[in-house]
Amino acid sequence: MAQGTVQVTHTGTSRWRRRTGEYASLAAALEAAADGDVLTIAPGTYRENLVVERAVTLRGPDGSQGSVRIAPADGVPLTLRASAVVQDLHVEGQDAAAPAVLIEEGTPELLDVRVVTRSAAGLEVRGGARPTVRRCTVDNPAGIGIAVVDGGGGVFEECEIVAAGQEGVAVRSGARPRLERCRVHHAAGSGLTATGEHSSLEAVGCEIYEVRGSGVQITGRATAHLTDCDVHRTTADGITLDTDAVLTLADCRIHDIPENAVDLRSRSVLTLTRTTVRTFGRNGLSVWDPGTRVDANQCEIFDSTGDYPAVWVSDGATAVLDSCRVHDVPDALFVLDRGSRADVVDSDLSQVRNTAVSVSDGATAQLDDCRIREAATGAWFRDHGSGGTLNNCAIDATRTGVIVTKGADPVIERCVIDSPGEAGAYVSAGGRGSFLNCRVTGSGGYGFHVIDGCRTTLRKCRTERCARGGYEFADAGPDAGPDTGPVVEDCTSDESAGLRPAPGTREPAVQTAPRSPGLLGSIPGQRRTEQEPLVTAVEPGRPVRDAQDVLGELDALVGLDSVKREVRALIDMIEVGRRRQQAGLKAASVKRHLVFTGSPGTGKTTVARLYGEILASLGVLEKGHLVEVSRVDLVGEHIGSTAIRTQEAFEKARGGVLFIDEAYALSPEDAGRDFGKEAIDTLVKLMEDHRDAVVVIVAGYTAEMERFLSVNPGVASRFSRTITFGDYGPEELLRIVEQQADEHEYRLAPGAAEGLLKYFTALPKGPAFGNGRTARQTFEAMVERHAGRVAQVADPSTDDLTLLYAEDLPAQP
Q1: Which superkingdom, per the lineage (predicted)?
Q2: Which end of the chain has less Cβ packing within 10 Å, N or C?
Q3: Given this model, what pLDDT does residue 524 score?
Q4: Contact partners, residue 615, CB within 8 Å, separation at least 6
C-alpha cells in the first residue's frame, strides 16, 4: 500500500462479496465505506478534518503504532458520529476554539489513540455519545484534557492525560463518564472536575498527581464516586467540594497535599470509607457551612506537615468519624461555631502535639468509645455554649486530660484518664461540666483540679496515684456568690485524707454524699486557696525554722547525696556572703535561681521547699514559701492571658520560691502557635526586675531541660547552677518502703526486705519509672494485697494485721 493512501476493505453479508480498494484521501475512503468496513491507513500525515458517520473501523497499519498522523491546519481533526472503531492513530489539533477529537453520537471505540494538540480540549464527548476509550493518551498543554459535556458519557480505561492547560478531565452539564485505571497529571487546573446538576463522575483505580490546582473538584450539585484512587502532589487542595456537591471515596489515598487534603463547603456531602489522608499542609478534612457533612468510616488521617487541625468543622457543619485513626498531627479535631457538630465513635486520636479535641464558640462534640493518647490536651471545651459528651473514652498520656473553661458545659461519663502530666481534669474561668463515673490514675499533678469557684459536678469519680492530690478545689474569692464551687457526690480516692468542705463562714462549695473510705483513707478535701491552677503554696505565715533544723530534714531524705552536697555548698556561699556584707566586705554575687534535672519522683519538689525555708532562715527571702506551677498555670488560651497568668504566679511566690515543674513544656520543639514563649519572656523580665524578691527553680527531665536552656539563652543566663537528681537504687527504694511502713504502722516480715530488693532490681527503669513514687505505690500495693489476705482470717493477731510478707509484693509491670 502506497504512502499516504487508505485501503478500504468492504464487507458484505457473505465472505465472497468482500473486496478491497485504495483511496488517495481519508475523505474519499470514508465516502466509499459502508457500515462494517475496515479502513487501514498507510503511514503518513493527513491534513484532513475527518467526520466519521458510519460504523466503520479506522486503524493504522499493523506494527506501526503512531505512524498515522491526522493533523489539519484548523478545525476539529476527528469527529465521530457513529459507533465506529478508531485504533492506532495520532491526532493533532491547533484550533483553540475546537477539540482535537469530538464524539457526538453513538458508542464508538477508541483504542491506542494518541492526541497531541493545542486545542480547546484533547477529546470531547457530547450529547448521547457513549464511547469506550482504551489505552489512549492526551497531551494538551493549551486546554482541557478530556471534556464530557451535555449529557455525554462513556468509559475510559487505562487512559492517560500527560498534560493539560486547564482541567485534566472536565465533566459538566449532566454528563456521566466512568474512568478506570486512568492517570491524570501535569494539569494546570483541577485534575478531575465535575460541575452542574445531574453531572456525575465515577473513577476506579485512577491516579491524579502533579496538578497545579485541586486534584478533584466537585461543585454545583454534581456527584462523584472514587474507588481505589490516588490523589497527590497538587498545589492547591487535594479534593474540593462546593455548593451541594456529593462525593464518595472508598479505599482511596490522598497524600502530599500542601493545602487542605479535603475541603467541602455550602451543603456538600462527603462519604469516606477505608481512605487514608496523610502528609497535608493545612487541614486533613476541612468542613464548612450549615448542611455540609462528612462521614468517615475506617479512615486514617495522619502525618500533617503544617500547624493546623487535622479535622476542622465550622460554621454549622457536621462531621462523623467512625472507627477512624487520627495521629501525628498538631491538633486532631477542632469543632467551632454554633450549630457545628462532630460525632466520633470507636476512633483513635494519638500523637497529637497540641489538643486532640477542641470545642468552641457554641459547637458540640460527641465522642463514644474513643481512645485519646499522647496529646498535650485530650479534650478542651473552651467557652459558653460549647459542650457535648465524652462517653466511655480512654485518655492516656496527655499533659491534661480534659479542660473546661469560660462557661463550657460538657458531660464526661465513664471515662478513664491515665497518666496525665499535669491534671486529669482542669476546670477554670467559669467552666462547668459534669464528670460522672470517671477515673483518673497516675497523674503527675492533680486528678481533678477545679478553680475560680467553678460549678462543676463530680459524681462517683475516683482518683488513684495522683502526685499532687486526687482533688484540688480553689474558690472564686470573697466576692463569690453562694452557688459557686463544685458539687461532689460519692467520689473516692486512694489518698490518706478525707474529703471535707472548705473552711469558712459561707455555705461550703463542696457537697458530699456518704462514701466508704479507701484502703489508706479517702479523698483529700477541698482547700480554699488563692492560687491559680496546679499552684501549691506552703503557708507563708508559719514560723520560720532554724537553718540547721531544715538542713537536718534535708539530710534525713533517702539518697540524694550529691544533691545534698550541692545544696550545702550553695547555702555556705550565701551564708558566707551574708557574713562578709555584715563585716563591711565585698560579697561574691551568688545567683540563687536553680535548675533541677532528673526523673519524676526523685525529690525535686521536696528539696525546693527545703531550699526556700533555708533561705528564709538566713534572711535572704522574706517568707520562704513554695509556689509550684507548671505549664497549664502559666500559659493561657488566648493572646495576652499568658503574661497575666505568669505575673500572678510570680506575685504569689514573692518572698519565696517559684518552682516550675516540667519547665521545658514552655518551649516545645515544634512551638508553632504556642504561647509558651510569652510565659518565658515575661518570666525573664520579672526575674530581672525583682531579682531579690523571688527565687525561681525550673525542673524537668535532664535531656529536655538541656534543650530548654539551649534554645532560651535568656533563661539560661539567669540560673547559677544545675543540680541533677539521680534515680534511686534498689536499696534506697527499700528504705522508702520501710519509712512508709513505719509511718503507717506496718512491719516487714523476715524475707520481705530481700524480696523488695529483688523486686526493685528487676523493675524496668524506663521513662515511666517513678522512683520514690514507685516505692510508695509498691507499698500501697503490698498493703492492698495484705488486706485481701488478712480479711479471710477470722481472728487476726497483731502480727497478722501489721506484717507484710514477700508474697504481698505486686507482679512486675
Answers
A1: Bacteria
A2: C
A3: 34
A4: 574, 592, 621, 624, 657, 695
Contact of 352 with 375, CB cutoff 8 Å? yes
Backbone φ and ψ of 203, nearest 5°: -135, 130
- Angle at the Cα of 604 (from 603 to 608), degrees rounded to 5? 115
Q: Which of 614, 798, 600, 633 is nearest to 702 (CA)?
A: 600
Least confidently predicted of 95-104, 196-205, 423-432, 620-629: 620-629
Rounded CA-CA distance 515/508 in Å is 18
**Which amino acid does the sequence have at 426?**
Y
Whether the predicted pLDDT of 273 surpasses 80: yes
Adjacent-strand bridge partners of 748? 804
- Neighbour count for residue 750 (Cβ, 10 Å): 9
Q: What pLDDT sits at residue 511?
A: 36
* Contact indicator for 144, 161 with CB cutoff of 8 Å: no
Cell numbers at residue 154, please?
A: 462513556
Pairing of strands 216-219, 109-111: unpaired
353 close to 668: Cβ distance less than 8 angstroms: yes
Average confidence (pLDDT) over 730-754 = 84
Q: What percent of the chain has pLDDT over 90?
A: 53
- Measured in residues, the chain has a length of 813
Give the three-class secondary structure for 740: helix
Q: Average per-residue pLDDT in the chain?
A: 85
Residue partners of 467: CB distance under 8 A and separation at least 6: 443, 444, 445, 600, 773
415 touches 440 (CB < 8 A): no
> For residue 608, is pLDDT > 80?
yes
Q: What is the pLDDT of residue 698?
A: 87
- Residue 573 is predicted with a pLDDT of 75
Strand order in the sheet with 657-660: 536-537, 626-629, 657-660, 695-700, 594-598, 721-725
Question: Which of these, 320, 315, 269, 321, lies nearest to 300 by C-alpha position?
Answer: 321
334 grid coordinates: 477542632
Distance CA 325, CA 328 (A): 10
pLDDT score, position 769: 64
> With 70 as the cut, is the pLDDT of residue 99 above it?
yes
591, containing H or E segment: none
Return the C-alpha torsion angle 110, 112, 116, 119, nearest 10. Answer: 10
* Cα distance between residue 399 and residue 189, in whole Å: 44
Give the Cα separation of 48 and 746 in Å (integer). Answer: 105
Task: Confirm if 102 and 152 have CB atoms less than 8 A apart.
Answer: no
Is the full-model pTM beyond 0.70? no
Closest CA to 174 of 110, 126, 106: 126
The cell numbers describing 625, all together, are 514559701
In contact, 267 and 243? CB cutoff 8 Å: yes
Inter-CA distances, 152 with 126, 149, 160, 178, Å: 5, 5, 19, 11
Residue 117 has pLDDT above 80, yes or no: yes
Q: Which of the four pLDDT bands, split at 50, 70 and 90, describes residue 341?
A: very high
Element (H, E) at 209: strand 207-211
Nearest to 485 by CA among 498, 469, 470, 502: 502
pLDDT in tens, 701-727: 877 887 777 766 667 777 767 888 877
